[in-house]
């Protein structure tokens, strides 16, 4: 087992990589713990949870709403949960985002931790302190920054994950390597077959290195004013593709990273060989490299998104594999640049 920590204004988080989730009770500080999980995770692992009280929610992005949050408050009140309760989210990114939000707001905040059960949740959603839900179709519109006290990443829990969900997690893994660590990128190129078949030793390094990159960035820029934006590599185009094509997030991000890499090449910042290496690595995890929507649809979706949060577009480009830069690009210029693909 390896450990990492995140420390900042929004709390302190201990992350345990390679810990067994059956040891969860060793990490629970309070007398009374209540778990939040979803129906799939409950079906696979519910009998093994070392927590007696469990609240089970449905699954899928459509349940990431304030209604689901209200349903959990109801159950907490019914169970007479007071401020001494410790909440633990056991599930994918959706469960973690909801559990973190509920714990941060119920009775003005109770203590909480996560057991992320998808690769995406282990390397991304459970790390960094963002919690929240969607509102009126807008993703993550309502939420708070707050760190879970602990995160337990048990690689064995990934074995029941459908391959497509696993691939989506690898999109964020490749992203971490591409923005910050050339050696790690090479390691993934060498070991992608073993990683994809969940070889224990390879996966321990994959999860640890990915979290270390994200935790490093978050420790330096907790509230996303500068460097943290690098974690959005592939996400400007990716979110647009996710909306226009209704694709899974990780698949859309894979397409988005390819678009951002080609744009970097068009701007003479990145060489063609690196673009091809990125494509090959994503393809080795069976991730798509190209979407179906045309440029106008993608650019329209980006413009609609921008109207909502108002400020300039901070676009993440690559200077090399392992090195990202953030550039402020006005939308109309991005449209022109994206239109001049080589
Ligand atoms: N807070 C953050 O910083 C952050 C970062 C990235 C993503 N997110 C959020 O995370 C969410 C996506 O997370 P996700 O990809 O984990 O999706 P998810 O939580 O929907 O999980 C994917 C599917 O896998 C199932 N599942 C989970 N664990 C399983 C297991 N061990 N075995 C079998 N099935 C399992 C789930 O029931 C679900 O059907 C999005 O809502 C996104 O906004 C948040
Ligand atoms: Zn993402």
Tell me about this structure.
By secondary structure, the protein is an alpha/beta fold. It has two domains: 2-160, Rossmann fold, CATH 3.40.50.1970; 164-339, Dehydroquinate synthase-like - alpha domain (Dehydroquinate synthase-like, alpha domain, Up-down Bundle), CATH 1.20.1090.10. Helix content is 48%, strand content 20%. It has 13 helices and eleven strands. The strands form four sheets. It has a four-stranded parallel β-sheet. Strands 1-2-9 form a three-stranded mixed β-sheet, with helices on one face. Helix 12 packs antiparallel against helix 13 (331-339). The longest helix has 21 residues, at 200-220. It is globular and about 60 Å long. The model has no long low-confidence stretch (mean pLDDT 93). Residues 124, 172, 235, 249, 253 line the site of zinc ion (ZN). Zinc ion is lined by residues 124, 172, 235, 249, 253.
Key terms for this structure?
342 residues, alpha/beta, Rossmann fold, Dehydroquinate synthase-like, alpha domain, 2 domains, 4-stranded parallel beta sheet, 3-stranded mixed beta sheet, 13 helices, 11 strands, globular, binds nicotinamide-adenine-dinucleotide, binds zinc ion
The backbone outline, from C-alpha atoms, is globular
Instruction: List ligands, each type once.
Output: nicotinamide-adenine-dinucleotide, zinc ion
What's the overall average pLDDT, rounded? 93
Specify the structural class.
alpha/beta
The rounded distance between the terminal residues' Cα atoms is 46 Å
Percent helix, as a range, is: 40-55%
Main pleated sheet: 4 strands, parallel
Enter the CATH topology name of the largest domain. Answer: Dehydroquinate synthase-like, alpha domain
User: What proportion strand?
Assistant: 15-25%
Strand order across the largest sheet? 4-3-5-6
Count the E strands. 11
At CATH's second level, what is the architecture of the largest domain? Answer: Up-down Bundle
């Amino acid at each position: 087992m390896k450990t990492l920590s995140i420390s900042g204004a929004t709390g302190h988080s201990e992350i345990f990589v390679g810990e067994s989730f059956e040891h969860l009770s060793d990490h629970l500080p309070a007398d009374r713990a209540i778990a939040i999980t979803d129906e799939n995770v409950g079906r696979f692992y519910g009998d093994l949870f070392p927590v007696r009280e469990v609240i089970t929610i449905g699954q899928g992005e459509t349940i990431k709403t304030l209604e689901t949050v209200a349903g959990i408050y109801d159950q907490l009140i019914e169970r007479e949960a007071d401020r001494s309760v410790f909440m633990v989210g056991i599930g994918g990114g959706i469960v973690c985002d909801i559990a973190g939000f509920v714990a941060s707001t119920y009775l003005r905040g109770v203590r909480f931790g996560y057991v992320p059960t998808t690769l995406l949740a282990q390397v991304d959603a459970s790390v960094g302190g963002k919690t929240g839900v969607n509102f009126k179709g807008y993703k993550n519109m309502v939420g708070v920054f707050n760190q879970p006290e602990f995160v337990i990443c048990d690689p064995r829990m990934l074995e029941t994950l459908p391959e497509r969900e696993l691939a989506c997690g690898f999109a964020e893994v490749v992203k971490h390597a591409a923005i910050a660590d050339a050696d790690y990128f090479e390691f993934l190129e060498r070991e992608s077959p073993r990683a994809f078949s969940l070889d224990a030793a390879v996966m321990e390094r994959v999860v640890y290195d990915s979290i270390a990159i994200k935790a490093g960035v978050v420790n330096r820029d907790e509230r996303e004013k500068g460097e943290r934006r690098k974690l959005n590599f592939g996400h400007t185009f990716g979110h647009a593709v996710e909306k226009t094509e209704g694709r899974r997030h990780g698949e859309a991000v894979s397409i988005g990273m390819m678009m951002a890499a080609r744009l970097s090449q068009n701007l003479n910042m990145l060489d063609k060989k690196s673009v091809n290496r990125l494509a090959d690595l994503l393809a080795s995890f069976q991730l798509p490299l190209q979407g179906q929507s045309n440029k106008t649809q993608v650019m329209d979706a980006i413009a609609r998104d921008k109207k909502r949060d108002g400020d300039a577009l901070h676009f993440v480009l690559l200077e090399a594999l392992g090195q990202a830069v953030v550039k402020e690009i006005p939308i109309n210029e991005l449209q022109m640049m994206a239109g001049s693909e080589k």
